[in-house]
């Protein structure tokens, strides 16, 4: 072994620190668990239907796996992961491509036949830039615009690459290495690029390093001549962001056609600026106007969002709140009726705890890339009552709240296809099931003298062949009680009703929607109780009690009922219930006795056709 001189050894250590430490620090959560994933041997998987909650090994609901391409089939060398993705359809030949961000460049995949995708080639990063976790790409017409984040030091300059996507037509079966057609160099690095295709405007956000950074806000470009972008101006909503500079992490800019008529046709941008959303009118890039801000308690990192198609609502994610305050993935929805006064109207919590990343909206459905819980399809057609309609987990063995898994889920606007990049797994080409978009609500039941009237609501009915009413008693399996066909005419929303007889006792009923391709959606079950007599009142529990006690009431008929707690002298000490109850439905009676003296009390229930009392002892 040749000994190293101290000076040479010191130089090598400094070089190692300069090259590798920024990458490690930039994404420190991607460590040991991911290194195991990267070394695993993987082969592409194709055509796995989502059945009984699985597409092969992947947990799913209403989303099928068409094809999976591991990292090595996307030109990625060891240690190189994926990040952003976008799509392009060639208007001349109809071919469809996914533009896949890698740490070291951009990969192009022909997905015209998604069951047999072709890796066409790559566009390496700018030569003066290091590989970095964050790369972003957007498309305007036939051109891709690519930026990358990083240290943005003197020797780490990336700028904005511009690539003519028509070069992809040159592919003849041999993987190609492309070069950028132009490089815009008025900034060093940037976290994201935003494009409004209607106005041929590009917005560099989160810029830093050399050149015009615009404080990390909006670096505004005219890209009507794609290979000759021209700088128009800056906008930064100072006072927000972690350092009050107006830094913008991501944004969406649109030619506005929403309900606030003052701004029709204007260039409206909503920025996700770490500590707030920022709404601005950037029509005149030389004189931009800050319109409003929106913030909320317990935010972690306001990361990204997207307008609903009518521009009425803005659906936003928060990248770090799950780590700061815990709980399931949170999606926030703003009412943008007045662009100068955004109102937070909905906070939706997923049943999965994972970090949310990018989301895009198509046909009223938000396609969310939520890292370790994968793709989540959130119905935002009713923004006040969103619901998850489908999902596909790209990391079935990882449920940690870390930056691993799905980075971006891009729904092609002209195809039933979703491209999902998963950080250390690869590219997943997914197909929504026929039923995706159908929202089936929990049924309601009314019992009158042993006859049940069952009703259920459906929204966005899509490819439903029939509804099956399923019934069970006790722990027995569900059986099909009745099959109901949807109406022959199309309705966005529909209410169904069906009547049947039940015997005395309790039973569960649910609705199953069955699609043309055999897919299913199952509602939550509702319990139906047909009492033996006119009512059923359970004994208070626990009894004796020191704090909380519970009882429950079921009436055979619809009627007004009062329930109260009395002491031994006949004085009312608690009013528990005074309302109209539906027959056959269970009502809980909760008694807080913590403030009562020890002794004997009576739970009294009085209906239109009955009255009953039960004794309860408060122990002290």
Topology:
Blueprint: H1 6-26, H2 32-39, E1 45-48, E2 54-55, E3 58-61, E4 63-70, E5 82-89, E6 96-102, E7 105-110, E8 118-124, E9 135-140, E10 143-148, E11 160-164, E12 176-177, E13 182-184, E14 187-189, E15 192-196, E16 201-205, E17 208-211, E18 218-222, E19 230-235, E20 250-255, E21 267-272, E22 277-281, E23 289-294, E24 302-307, E25 313-318, H3 321-325, E26 330-335, E27 343-349, E28 359-362, E29 365-369, E30 375-379, E31 387-392, E32 406-411, E33 418-422, E34 426-432, E35 439-440, E36 444-448, E37 451-459, E38 464-472, E39 479-484, E40 493-501, E41 505-515, E42 520-522, E43 526-530, E44 535-537, E45 548-555, E46 559-567, E47 572-581, E48 587-592, E49 599-606, E50 611-618
Parallel strand pairs: 8-12
Antiparallel strand pairs: 1-4, 2-3, 3-31, 4-34, 5-6, 6-7, 7-8, 9-10, 10-11, 11-13, 14-17, 15-16, 16-18, 18-19, 20-21, 21-22, 22-23, 24-25, 25-26, 26-27, 28-29, 29-30, 30-31, 32-33, 33-34, 35-37, 36-37, 37-40, 38-39, 38-41, 41-42, 41-43, 44-45, 45-48, 46-47, 46-49, 49-50
């Amino acid at each position: 072994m040749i000994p190293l001189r101290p000076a040479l050894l010191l130089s090598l250590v400094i070089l190692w620190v300069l090259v590798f430490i920024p990458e490690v620090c930039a994404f420190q959560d991607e460590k040991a668990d991911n290194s195991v994933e990267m070394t695993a041997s993987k082969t592409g998987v194709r055509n796995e239907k989502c059945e009984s909650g699985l597409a092969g090994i992947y947990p799913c609901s209403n989303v099928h796996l068409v094809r999976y391409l591991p990292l090595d089939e996307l030109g990625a060398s060891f240690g190189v992961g994926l990040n952003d993705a976008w799509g392009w359809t060639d208007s001349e030949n109809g071919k469809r491509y996914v533009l896949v961000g890698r740490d070291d460049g951009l990969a192009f995949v022909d997905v015209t036949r998604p069951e047999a995708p072709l890796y066409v080639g790559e566009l390496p990063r700018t030569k003066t830039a290091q590989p970095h976790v964050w790369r972003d790409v957007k498309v305007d017409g036939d051109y891709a615009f690519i930026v990358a984040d990083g240290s943005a030091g003197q020797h780490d300059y990336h700028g904005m690459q511009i690539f003519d996507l028509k070069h992809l037509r040159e592919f003849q079966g041999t993987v190609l290495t492309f070069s950028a057609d132009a490089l815009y160099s008025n900034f060093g690095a940037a976290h994201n690029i935003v494009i409004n295709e209607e106005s041929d405007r590009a917005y560099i956000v989160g810029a830093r390093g050399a050149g015009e950074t615009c404080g990390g806000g909006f670096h505004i470009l005219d890209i009507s001549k794609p290979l000759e972008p021209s700088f128009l101006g800056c906008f930064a909503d100072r006072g927000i962001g972690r350092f009050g500079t107006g830094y913008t992490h991501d944004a969406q800019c649109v030619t506005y056609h929403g309900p606030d008529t003052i701004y029709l046709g204007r260039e409206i941008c909503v920025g996700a600026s770490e500590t707030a959303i920022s709404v601005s009118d950037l029509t005149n890039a030389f004189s931009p106007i800050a319109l409003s801000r929106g913030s909320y308690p317990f935010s972690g990192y306001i990361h990204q969002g997207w307008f609903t198609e009518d521009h009425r609502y803005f659906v936003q994610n928060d990248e770090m709140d799950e780590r700061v305050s815990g709980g399931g993935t949170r999606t926030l929805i703003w009412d943008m009726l007045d662009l100068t006064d955004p109102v937070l109207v909905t906070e939706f919590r997923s049943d999965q705890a994972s970090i949310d990343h990018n989301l895009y909206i198509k046909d009223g459905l938000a396609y969310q890339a939520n890292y370790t819980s994968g793709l989540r399809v959130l119905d935002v057609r009713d923004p006040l009552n969103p619901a998850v309609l489908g999902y596909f987990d790209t990391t079935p063995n990882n449920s940690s709240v870390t930056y691993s898994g799905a980075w971006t889920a891009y729904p092609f606007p002209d195809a039933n296809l979703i491209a999902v990049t998963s950080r250390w797994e690869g590219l997943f080409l997914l197909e929504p099931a026929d039923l995706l978009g159908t929202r089936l609500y929990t049924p309601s039941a009314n019992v009158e003298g042993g006859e049940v009237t069952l009703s259920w609501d459906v929204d966005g009915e899509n490819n439903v062949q029939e509804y099956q009413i399923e019934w069970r008693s006790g722990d027995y399996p569900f059986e099909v009680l009745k099959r109901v066909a949807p109406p022959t005419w199309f309705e966005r929303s529909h209410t169904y009703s069906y009547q049947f007889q039940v015997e005395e006792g309790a039973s569960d009923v649910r609705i199953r929607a069955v699609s043309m391709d055999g897919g299913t959606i199952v509602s939550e079950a509702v319990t139906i109780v047909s009492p033996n007599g006119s009512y059923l009142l359970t004994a208070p529990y626990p009894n004796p009690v020191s704090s909380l006690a519970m009882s429950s009431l079921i009436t055979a008929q619809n009627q007004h009922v009062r329930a109260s707690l009395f002491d031994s002298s006949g004085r009312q000490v608690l009013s528990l219930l005074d309302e109209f109850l539906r027959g056959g439905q269970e009502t809980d009676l909760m008694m807080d006795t913590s403030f009562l003296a020890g002794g004997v009390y009576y739970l009294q229930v009085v209906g239109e056709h009955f009255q009953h009392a039960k004794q309860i002892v408060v122990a002290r």
